[in-house]
Design brief:
Multidrug-efflux Transporter Regulator, Chain: A, Domain 2, 2 domains, 3 strands, elongated, single chain, three-stranded antiparallel sheet
Length: 145
Amino acid sequence: MHEVLTIGEAAARSGVATSALRFYEDQGLIHSERNDAGHRRYPRAVIRRVAFIVFAQKIGLSLDEIRAELAKLPSNRVPERSDWAQLSAAWAKRIRARIAELERLQLGLTECIGCGCLSLDRCQFANPGDRAARRGSGPRYWMNR
């Protein structure tokens, strides 16, 4: 029989709260079995799934995207390193895009917010003639770049 963990053990080992495990389970991202007393028991492999979920959230994947990625894992065996590597390979592009976005935001902090005017409708440097208004409301220079 495979080793199982209580919810407290799984939380301690994975570094997330028990409430997070319950949430991930409610979202269909992880699964547990119930013992005779109705308590959750997680297979040890859940630790890797939780690590994957946490990492995926940190790079900006939505729960739906995470669910779709996890569905690609084999159901007939415990996922191996190569399975996890295959899932995360496509993330490099997303991480680079996120880094570029953060660098643009950093430049904005020093160039625009740093100038002190905070007035895009009057700023001749960043928004001459209020051309940003033609793009729509909100921070258009930062959206959909």
